[in-house]
Specification:
By secondary structure, the protein is an alpha+beta fold. The chain contains one helix and eight strands, in the order αββββββββ. It has two domains: about 35 residues; about 70 residues, Lipocalin, CATH 2.40.128. The radius of gyration is 25 Å and the shape is elongated.
C-alpha cells in the first residue's frame, strides 16, 4: 500500500469514528430530556393542589399547603395512581383525590 492510500484509509476511519461518537452524544442528550406535564386542581375550600407529572420517570411532584411531595407511579386499572409510604394520589378525568396515611385530605372540585 502506498502512503497516500494509508492516509486516506486513516482519515476515513477517523471520520467514521467521530461521526458515530457525535451521533451517540446526540442520542444520549435526547434520552435525558424528561417529559413533564403540569396540572392543578382546587377543592371546595379553595385549596390548590399543584401537580408536576414526569412521564419519563413515572413520578409526580405535588405542592400542597406549602409541602412538596414526591410520589411513584403505580399501575391503575384506569386513570392515575401514584403513592409513597404516606401519600396516595388517585384520579380519573378531572376527579383527583389525595390521601395521607389513609385519610382523605383533598378532593378536587368539579370545574363549572
Amino acid at each position: 500500500m502506498t502512503i497516500k492510500t494509508l492516509k486516506t484509509a486513516f482519515l476515513l476511519t477517523m471520520f467514521a469514528f467521530f461521526s458515530s461518537q457525535a451521533s451517540f452524544a446526540q442520542e444520549k442528550t435526547e434520552k435525558a430530556t424528561d417529559e413533564i406535564v403540569n396540572s392543578s386542581a382546587v377543592d371546595k375550600k379553595g385549596n390548590k393542589l399543584e401537580m408536576s407529572f414526569n412521564n419519563t420517570k413515572n413520578t409526580v411532584t405535588l405542592k400542597f399547603k406549602g409541602k412538596t411531595i414526591e410520589l411513584k407511579g403505580q399501575t391503575p386499572a384506569s386513570g392515575i395512581w401514584y403513592k409513597n409510604d404516606r401519600y396516595e394520589l388517585r384520579g380519573k378525568g378531572e376527579n383527583i383525590d389525595l390521601t395521607k396515611n389513609g385519610k382523605t385530605i383533598f378532593v378536587s372540585k368539579p370545574k363549572e
